[in-house]
Design a protein that fits this description.
The protein is of the alpha+beta class. It folds into three domains: 51 residues, Structural Genomics Hypothetical 15.5 Kd Protein In mrcA-pckA Intergenic Region, Chain A (Roll), CATH 3.10.290.10; 93 residues, Alpha-Beta Plaits (2-Layer Sandwich), CATH 3.30.70.580; 77 residues, 2-Layer Sandwich (Pseudouridine synthase), CATH 3.30.2350. It has six helices and 15 strands. The strands form three sheets. Strands 5, 6, 7, 8, 11, 12, 13, 14 and 15 form a nine-stranded mixed sheet that branches. Strands 2-1-3-4 form a four-stranded antiparallel sheet, with no helix packed on it. A two-stranded antiparallel ribbon has the order 9-10. The model has no long low-confidence stretch (mean pLDDT 92).
Length: 238
Amino acid sequence: MRLNRYLAQSGVASRREADELIKAGVVTVNGKVVTELGTKVYPADKVHYGGQRLSREQPRYVLLNKPKDFLTTTDDPRERRTVMHLVESACPERLYPVGRLDRNTTGVLLLTNDGDLAKRLTHPSFGAEKLYHVTLDKSVTKADLDKLVEGVELEDGPAQADEASFVEGTSKREVGLKLHMGRNRVVRRMFEALGYDVVKLDRVMFAGLTKKDIPRGKWRHLSEKEVLFLTKRKKAQR
């Protein structure tokens, strides 16, 4: 097995990031620093990174229905509550969030130790589809829904939704928004650019995964079928 793949399966980084670690000379195999890309390792080899011996972990994929007031991070210096507190009993392996949901945003969040998959799901070229249920401070006009699809100008460049529509059976303060981009607070900022404040923001779908039958604050492991679906999509992007 190639060393970069071994690092990815150990939960250290994606394969591309692992290549950078190898080139930087921070990975050792059997006590020797390895900087050559494409180096292969075997079951009896001892691989170290960051002063710790690595081992290939069983890949884990956990889907969380994130509640409010939890940070999407693995650690917080101010010791505030993070999503890691909610999934600490999911598995012995260390998990990492795929992408981010801000503190007040709820809904679908994938956590995994598969660094390669995580990198691809968050890379702009992959285009992981996201669907949000947005509640605003006032009714939205149809003209403004059209502007969201046409694109709005933000301080870090234009942002565009794939679809924007009223949520059926609700008031015109509630909107369904589908998009692929994953920039920081992009949904909130798109509405703010049009003069609206987001009161509630719930992600109901990410990369084809939904929070169906997962109560708020609870989690479940992905099924083999779901993992296969994500893996096939990942390979299709290579």
